[in-house]
Amino acid sequence: MDEDNLLIICRSCGRKVLMHNMKPDGENMVCLECYNKSAGVKSAVSVLAPEPKRTKVDKTEKLVKFICTNCKYKFSRKASQHVEKCPYCGKNTIVHDDQLGANKLINDSMNKKFDW
Description:
Blueprint: E1 7-9, E2 16-18, E3 22-25, E4 28-31, H1 32-48, E5 63-68, E6 74-78, E7 94-96, H2 102-109
Antiparallel strand pairs: 1-2, 3-4, 5-6, 5-7
């Protein structure tokens, strides 16, 4: 059988159409009429409703570092976000990361109230 005479069923309208009158439309093969209709609809939609311009997200907001004293998970959130629980273990044993660590221990050891 000659390939030009091969009939293929249009996945949009269900008609049998010659193979050379078919176009790929995403995942399926559709006839030229259905293809032109869908292309016309797509172009009309893009003309009528242009994509909204993306607004720049304010990335200047300061991030606050946290650490969970239960599971030792470290994470950061924007300063405007309120944090109640650890996102990893779910416990409410979180502190600011600057409240723990070697630097904090050294600074506290120099404090007069810790002199024995």
